[in-house]
Amino acid sequence: MKRRSFMKGLGATGSLAITGGLATPALLSGAGRAYAQGGELNVGLLFSLTGAVAVVERTLHDAALMAIEEINAAGGVAGMQLKTFIEDPASDPATYADRARRLVIRDNCVSVFGSYTSASRQAVLPVVEQRNNLYWYPTLYEGRECSRNVMYGGAVPNQQQQEFVPWLAENFGKRFFLIGNNYVYPREENNVCKMILAGLGGEAVHEEYVPLGHSDFSSVINRIRTEQPDVVFCTLVGDSDVAFARQYHAAGFDPETMPCASLTRSEVEVQAIGGEAAVGHFSSAPYFMGYQSPENEKFVQAYLSRYGADQVTHFVSEAAYFQVYQFKAAVEKLDPANITPTAIRDAAVGLTTMAPQGEVVIDANLHTHLWPKIARWKSDGQAEILVQSEARVAPDPYWAYEGETCTGEGLVRG
Amino acid sequence: MDAILNQAFAGLSMASILLIVALGLAIIYGSMGVINLAHGEFVMLGAYAAWAMQSFLGFSILVSLPFIFVAIAVVGWVVERGVVHRLYRRPLDTILATWGIGIVLQQLVRMFIGPESLFVATPTILEGNTVIGAVVMSNYRLFVIAFAVAVLAATWGLMTRTEFGTRLRAVIQNREISECYGIRAEKVYATTFAYGAGLAGVAGALLTPLVSTTPSMGTYLVVDAFLVVIIGGVGSLIGTAVAAGAVGEATALFSMLMNDTLGRIAVLLAIILLIRFRPNGLFPQTIRR
User: Fold this and answer.
1) Are B129 and B137 in contact (CB under 8 A)?
2) Last-in-domain residue among A285, A314, A331
3) At residue B26, what are phi and psi to the nearest 5 degrees?
4) Is the residue at A187 inside a domain?
């Protein structure tokens, strides 16, 4: 009996080794497989090209791909060409995890660039943490995360709000009406907003969350009419934001006295809202397409000539673009024989890169020091930058949580 | 009091949107028994047609409405002739087929026009608001309400006052006997399907100034439209109208008392209760089968 089960076990291992050897030889060598091989370095792109979030992720995909091809055309990274593996997770979180696994294990990618929503990032997180790979996430998000395997290129709440909210309070008043979609991002942003407001002696007169994709705001608008707040603080995303902005304008509200201040409205949404309804409202972000700098001019020109003159660049696609350059700079600091995801991560900390928004730096906590800007939308769909922070703002993903800090050693409590 | 009146108008406006989306569905579902899951995509195609006419021909929505009606009706006719009419005796397969058609249409738009949200202008003559006392009413929303009522009246007239309507009602009651009298049921079905699709297209065009025009916009709308048709009672135009009004006003009322999210939950709960006690809807059809 014992002998028989032993034989069975042997047979199973044997056939496993054979099929494994035939299909994916790399599985056998496991972690020992070198990342830099034959003058090539594999990287993955994980942006949805179909499904609900394809609207935004397609632009991120385009921006990241453009950066990769620019780098390859200029001679590659430390003499190696970047070989791109493209996967389409079709806007579904479970598929993100599956495709991330494919990129990391089968395609031997040394880094994966991807995703827009927090839900998709959180789906990929266990994969990259388990495999100790590196995930470059370009989107602004709600903070309160401190993974050692994710490079966060977008703003966290303190970076978008610590100048924006006091500025709004000073110029328009301290009575805020908070409206957002009903999920984690708007709620965390509004927590931060309420804390800053409380410090200024202001108040949130009403806080409302509508389901994702909600498109009829007549009740909300009636409530705004009754409350008459000084500022409508808006964390609606995508279609909801477009519908809200158009109905807000149709309701006859004047942005001079009661503006919408948004953390999520970019050139993409404004294009769909239409200049007439968007004009006069505010957004806070590290990047706007109309920002004047030689780097941005180059970025915008390259993007438009490649993807069409009717396209726009925005604060997430900019990060998707500069993160590839951050990756390049980090790899170039390493010995080619010793390129691993964790080595890239450690080399990236403290790295200074010239981005379209200005010179950005990667913090020890893997978030990015950025240049927040306050802008007012114009009728041509571009933003006029009114206030630009004087120094880079440091990322503090646990700003609203006393006693918790995200550091180079991960999350520290107390 | 002002708040209540304003909210009542908001409810009426939501009701008009529901009605105009649901009417086409009610006709197809009610008269042919076809559960058309591609209805939302017909709505979306109407919105895209409005966008295309605005950007390529410079037409305002109001001018393009008749063209859009015809264009989407043609799409509906092709879908009926190509797929649906082969499946009349297999209702479950119809659901699957129309769902598939919906996905195909959505992806085609995404591939050829792009996934981004598009901008369609509000007609200039309908901008601004009408203020009566403290009630502020958007002119465009007033127009949509009037239009929805007009479409309801026209459809009712078509069903009861025209020869086509008589034929349609005959086919609904008994297809075989009607065919014995020389009515070509196939033709009647194709025309009805095309008419329902055309209405969906018009609804989509009318929605463009209020919502965001994207390939997936129909998905959200069609769920509410189905609710309205089911509450109203399958095949009843008046039922559809009453149900749209009730759902719209109930949503507005609950949203005012609580908030939009809880309001929506409350409305769905109320619908479940209603269906529990009136499984055939508010105005069940009484025909012999």
Assistant:
1) yes
2) A285
3) -60, -40
4) yes
Q: How far is A34 from chain B (nearest CA, A)?
A: 38
Task: Work out whether strand A383-388 and strand A373-377 pair parallel, antiparallel, or are unpaired.
Answer: antiparallel
If asked whether residues A132 and A172 sit together in one domain, one would say no
What 3-state DSSP class applies to A112? strand
Dist CA B100 CA B96 (whole Å): 6
Average pLDDT score, chain A: 89
* Contacts for B275 with CB less than 8 Å, ≥ 6 apart: B230, B231, B281
Provide the H-helix boundaries in A139-253: 157-161, 164-171, 184-200, 218-227, 238-250
Give helix B185-207 / helix B139-161 axis angle, nearest 10°. Answer: 170
What is the phi/psi pair of residue B185, to 5°? -55, -40
Q: Which residues have CB under 8 Å from A145's CB, separation 6+?
A: A152, A397, A406
* 3-state secondary structure at position B184: coil
Cβ contact A250–B7 (<8 Å): no
- Is residue A16 in some structural domain? no
Within 8 A of A268 by CB-CB distance, chain B residues are 116-117
Place of tokens 């949805």: A48
CATH code of the domain occupying B2-277 = 1.10.3470
Cβ atoms < 10 Å from Cβ of B288: 5
Digit-coded pLDDT (tens) for B39-53? 999 999 999 999 999
Residue-range definition of the domain harbouring residue A126: 33-155+287-369
Query: How many domains, in total, are found in chain A?
Result: 2
Domain residue ranges in chain B: 2-277
Is position A380 within any domain? no
To the nearest whole percent, how much of chain A has pLDDT over 70? Answer: 92
Q: Shortest CB distance from B3 goes to which of A222, A252, A273? A: A222
CATH number of A252's domain: 3.40.50.2300
Whether residues A69 and A98 share a domain: the answer is: yes
Q: Tens digit of pLDDT for each residue in B97-141?
A: 999 999 999 989 988 888 778 888 888 888 888 888 888 888 889
Q: Which of residues 38-67 of B touch A (CB under 8 A)?
A: none
Rounded Cα distance, B156 and A413, in Å = 68
Residues of chain A with C-beta less than 8 angstroms from the C-beta of B118: 272
Q: What is the ipTM of this complex?
A: 0.82
pLDDT of residue A326: 96
Q: For residue A225, give the nearest of B6, B116, B256 by CB distance.
A: B6
Express as a percent the part of chain B with pLDDT over 90: 37
Q: Is residue A389, in this structure, part of any structural domain at all?
A: no
B6, B14, B211 ranked by CB distance to A243: nearest:
B211
Say yes or no for a CB contact (<8 Å) between B260 and A208.
yes
Say yes or no: A309 and A359 in one domain.
yes
Asked if B118 reaches chain A (Cβ–Cβ under 8 Å), the answer is yes
